[in-house]
Amino acid sequence: QVQLVESGGGLVQAGGSLRLSCAASTSGHTFRSFAMGWFRQAPGKERESVATFNSGGEIDYADSVKGRFSISRQNAELYLQMNSLIPEDTAVYYCNARKYFGVAFIDYWGQGTQVTVSS
């Protein structure tokens, strides 16, 4: 069983900053073998990747957040530092942990945290 709990969302003016946190817990696994990252879903849009660590530890950012967002990871905690926020960043942000089994995988999701950026 894997549990992911996000925190740190809220309402911020354009140009402001927020830091999201994800506390991960599991029984019988170590998160070292998980790929982890942040996704977001805006109203009426599909869920999209924002920033992720792959299972090899490499980081990938969406083009729309490069230079503004920074993902970090410490033990079973995942963080997303968001700077220079713009209204287009408004979405529910989800923490994701992905466990690979060869080419197959299982995704685990947190409940999401709302980020609203006002203009």
Give the arrangement of secondary structure elements.
Layout: E1 2-7, E2 10-13, E3 18-26, E4 34-41, E5 48-53, E6 59-61, E7 69-74, E8 77-82, E9 91-101, E10 104-109, E11 113-118
Parallel strand pairs: 2-11
Antiparallel strand pairs: 1-3, 3-8, 4-5, 4-9, 5-6, 7-8, 9-10, 9-11
Quick description:
The protein is mostly beta strands.
Quick tags:
mainly beta, 7-stranded mixed sheet
Descriptive notes:
This protein has about 120 residues and is mainly beta. Helix content is about 0%, strand content about 60%. The chain has no helices and eleven strands. The protein has strands at about 1-5, 10-15, 20-25, 35-40, 50-55, 60, 70-75, 75-80, 90-100, 105-110, 115-119. Strands 2, 4, 5, 6, 9, 10 and 11 form a seven-stranded mixed beta sheet that branches. A four-stranded antiparallel beta sheet has the order 1-3-8-7, with no helix packed on it.
Q: Mind summarizing the main beta sheet?
A: 7 strands, mixed
N-C termini distance: 40 Å
Query: SSE string, helix = H, strand = E?
Result: EEEEEEEEEEE
Shape: elongated
Going by helix content, strand content and strand pairing, the class is mainly beta
Strand coverage percent: over 45%
* Count of extended strands: 11
Total helical segments: 0
Assembly state: single chain
Radius of gyration: 14 Å
Uncertain runs with pLDDT below 50, 5 residues or more? Answer: none
